Amino acid sequence: MFPSDKLASLRKLLFEMEQDLGLADLSGIQRDVYYAARLTAEGAEMVRGEAIRSHALLNRISRPTFYRALKDLELAGYLSHADTTRSGKYRLLR
């Protein structure tokens, strides 16, 4: 078995899990922003937008694309902007 075969198997498993969790409907960038938010929060309920933005998963996306994906995730109910006086924090909902 080639290492790429193992990687392909992992990707298939990830895809199946994304389908089960309803994440398959998100774009790749939206999923990466969601994953970065979850990883950055480390189990906490809230996370700062700039902390999400600086995650390694998002190195290659532009700032406007990041904020568009963040807004799309808000509209889809995956996270919400915290109401605390423009804190830049987001509450993880799913």
Structure description:
This protein is mainly alpha-helical and 94 residues long. Helix content is 54%, strand content 11%. It is built from four helices and three strands, in the order ααβααββ. The protein has helices at residues 3-21, 28-41, 49-53, 63-75; strands at 46-48, 79-81, 89-92. The chain has a three-stranded antiparallel beta sheet. Strand 2 and strand 3 form a beta hairpin.
Task: Detail the topology: elements first, then pairings.
Blueprint: H1 3-21, H2 28-41, E1 46-48, H3 49-53, H4 63-75, E2 79-81, E3 89-92
Antiparallel strand pairs: 1-3, 2-3
Helix pairs in contact: 2-4
Summed up:
The protein is mostly helical and 94 residues long. 54% of the residues lie in helices and 11% in strands. It is built from four helices and three strands; from the N terminus they run ααβααββ.
Strand content: 5-15%
Low-confidence stretches: none
Number of strands: 3
The chain-level mean pLDDT equals: 90
**How much is the radius of gyration in Å?**
14 Å
Distance between the termini: 36 Å
**Helical coverage, percent range:** 40-55%
Helix-strand sequence = HHEHHEE
Name the features.
94 residues; mainly alpha; 3 strands; 54% helix; elongated
